[in-house]
Amino acid sequence: MRLLQVVETFLREDGWEFVALASRTVLRTHYQGKHGNWTCYAQTREEDEQFLFYAVCPIRVPENKRTAMSEFITRANYGMIIGNFEMDFSDGEIRFKTSMDVENSELTSSMVRAAVYWSIAMMDRYLPGFLRVLGGNVSAEVAIDEIEREDLPDLSKS
């Protein structure tokens, strides 16, 4: 449980409230962004020496909008250097995932911080586009173009 301990220490020291999920190496927390609030999960896969952080979109995509949302997610992911959006076609859940393999190295608080803050920044950045596409107001292409014209968030101030 050494990876989980690093994650727990970071979250505590950074002021996050979290709960451990029963019998798993998963911690649940919440985040309030500029555009909404959502649940986040920090997961370690101790045997595989991997750390994952998920920011889960606060809305589920109705079945009749999943194709349009798939286009939005594909456009958002194209060229994204770190992490990715994914959608569960069975229930419409969208999440942003940042992950790292730390085999033969050490997971550090700064690595955890980077994963956490990048995931929440990307969810906050793209959430208005999700809502616009779901509302039928704009196409996925237009929503992505509007979002990606804006500067990336400055994570040094987080």
Could you explain how this protein is built, in words?
The chain has helices at 2-13, 66-77, 109-134, 140-148, and strands spanning 18-20, 26-32, 37-45, 50-56, 84-87, 94-101. With 158 residues, it is α+β, with helices and mostly antiparallel strands. The longest helix has 26 residues, at 109-134.
CATH topology: Yope Regulator, Chain: A
CATH class: Alpha Beta
Low-confidence stretches: none
Query: Which term fits the overall shape?
Result: elongated
Strand order of the largest sheet: 1-2-3-4-6-5
Report the biggest beta sheet as strand number plus sense, adding barrel if it closes: 6 strands, antiparallel
Structural features:
158 residues, alpha+beta, Yope Regulator, Chain: A, six-stranded antiparallel sheet, 37% helix, 24% strand, elongated
